[in-house]
From TrEMBL, chains A, B:
InterPro entries: Cyclophilin-like_dom_sf (IPR029000), Cyclophilin-type_PPIase_dom (IPR002130), E_coli_cyclophilin_A-like (IPR044665). The lineage of its organism: Bacteria, Pseudomonadati, Pseudomonadota, Gammaproteobacteria, Lysobacterales. This is peptidylprolyl isomerase. PROSITE patterns: CSA_PPIASE_2. It comes from Ahniella affigens. Keywords: Isomerase, Rotamase, Signal. It comes from the Bacteria. One of its GO terms (molecular function) is peptidyl-prolyl cis-trans isomerase activity. Its EC number is 5.2.1.8. Residues 62-250 form the PPIase cyclophilin-type domain. SUPFAM superfamilies: Cyclophilin-like (SSF50891). PANTHER family: PEPTIDYL-PROLYL CIS-TRANS ISOMERASE CYP38, CHLOROPLASTIC (PTHR43246). The keyword Phosphoprotein does not apply. Residues 1-26 form the signal peptide.
Length: 307, 307
């Protein structure tokens, strides 16, 4: 009996099919609610979806590939700009500029603020209005969480993204693994040419302050293991080596043989509600206290390599 | 005007005095509440405390030193066992066994479960009752947070540690940077010979399931940048190299010249309450939405090198 902590599968963790305890299913299914591993092992193929290749970004670093799902329902203008930049190979050869412990990693053009030196943005727009929140709509059903949220009136998951909301407004939440577009002091000073990812405890006070554009589906470890910058705010300073971006491309623009075939669990299904409940009230034998509560950024949105 | 995200100083981040914007103080002090940087810059020496060297653990890794403050008020038996093990050099030469993305890093004896092969525990006890919660007491004042908590009746900070509670009970909370003692399936199967640290979004469902023993004050980056294990649950598997523990010692048992002189902001002061409010309602010019809410694991408990 190994002395372990239990399994955590949170927002950005790949599920390796190998450790799913298939054997537990038959015995327990009739007698008690299933845990997450059992629910996923028993899931039907249509419980999963293939992310749209036009909305999937491959951030290729020397250490490996980071896969980001874009969120056009929440940040259409920023997503369009990022797609334009990626198609123009804007990011290729740029670097990770900042890695701040328990906060964010950020990449892009180190001269973004210098109109003389900065890399040309081509057909992308230099400034975009902030896309901090939007109207709720029937096309964006929210799987609401039952235990409330410290930062908002409600919280839940919509179309594969963690969201929070108030009244008829809804916004993406700064959970671990979420990707945003840096901005300066004004709301319209971002454009998607400088992106960041949350690599620590979820800084929810950034919600509605900066535009989130997507979520890391796979490869978070290539960002979280980067050496922290020694400058103020975690900026990388000489003589520390810069991590160069090999390329940022849309999956749609990547030759088929070089794509990574993945699936994301759908979040508009009864199975996903069961999954939330399985993580909310832990029935795995290791747990002495089942908790009976769950907070937004601890809700798993599972991703797997295609079988 | 650099395109930045604002400063995040969360539980385990060192404050480098250099970036404190001292200049802002004189102008703004009379007219608006101070931000965190200003509050810390203006803090008196007695707002800080020096952690007790008997309750301070140095985890020395090849990459550098991780400093952990032990929490004898919350886990006296586990802390005593860890002190016994450290004094006997139990951990020296053992390894980091597990690094799981967005969850925990864990270290200790890979043969801990094998009574024949495992490293002898010496005077330390092989099994300890879980120390999952305790009675509130006047000696443990709690700086309570005003915005509630998803996982508990109340949350706050006590003697430098994030805590949650219900009625007259209080417990340490699994925030980023908190250190715990692994256990097996029963409450009394831990002993402090296998320790873990939270390296992702705070897994609060572990609260009251496993004994927390302290908090990383400095050096989190030496744990968070470790390569993730490729085995189930993030266990390190061959051929990946193991990260060896150079030593784990109490600061008190470390020659004075080899100690790291640090201070932690006291959390039982009016200044600390001001700090919480400064982080709860952001007045720095970058923020468009001041939020007006704060969640336990986003409360900073600042640490600095001694001036």
């Amino acid at each position: 009996m190994p002395r372990l902590l239990p399994i955590a599968l949170s927002l950005s963790v790949l599920i390796a099919a190998t450790w799913l305890p298939m054997a537990a299913m038959a015995d327990d299914a009739a007698t008690k609610p299933l845990g997450m591993a059992e629910l996923l092992a028993a899931s039907k193929p249509d419980a999963w979806r293939t992310p749209d290749p036009e909305q999937t970004l491959y951030l290729d670093l020397p250490a490996g590939r980071v896969i980001i799902e874009l969120a056009p329902d929440f940040a259409p203008a920023h997503v369009a700009n990022i797609q334009t930049l990626a198609k123009a190979h804007y990011f290729d050869g740029l670097s990770v500029l900042r890695v701040q412990e328990n906060y964010v990693a950020q990449w892009g053009d180190p001269n973004a603020e210098d109109t003389a030196k900065r890399k040309a943005l081509g057909d992308a727009k230099p400034n975009l209005a902030g896309e901090f929140q939007r109207q709720r709509s029937a096309e964006l059903p929210v799987a609401k969480l039952p235990d409330g949220d410290v930062y908002a009136e409600f919280a839940g998951v919509s179309k594969g993204f963690p969201v929070a909301g108030k009244g008829d407004q809804i916004w993406l939440a700064h959970c671990y693994g979420m990707v945003g577009a840096g901005r300066g002091d004004t709301a319209d000073s971002g454009n998607g040419a400088e992106l960041y990812v949350v690599i620590g405890h979820s800084p929810r006070h950034l919600d509605r302050n900066v535009t989130l554009v997507g979520r890391v589906l796979l490869g978070m470890e290539h960002l979280t293991t980067l050496q922290r910058g020694t400058g103020a705010l975690g900026f990388i300073e000489p003589p520390a080596p810069m991590t160069r971006i090999t390329s940022i491309r849309l999956a749609a623009d990547t030759p088929k043989a070089e794509r990574t075939a993945i699936e994301v669990l759908r979040t508009d299904t009864p199975l996903f509600k069961q999954l939330i409940e399985a993580r909310r009230t832990r029935r795995e034998s290791w747990f002495l206290e089942p908790t009976g509560r769950i907070e937004l950024c601890n809700v798993p949105i599972p991703v797997r390599l295609k079988p």
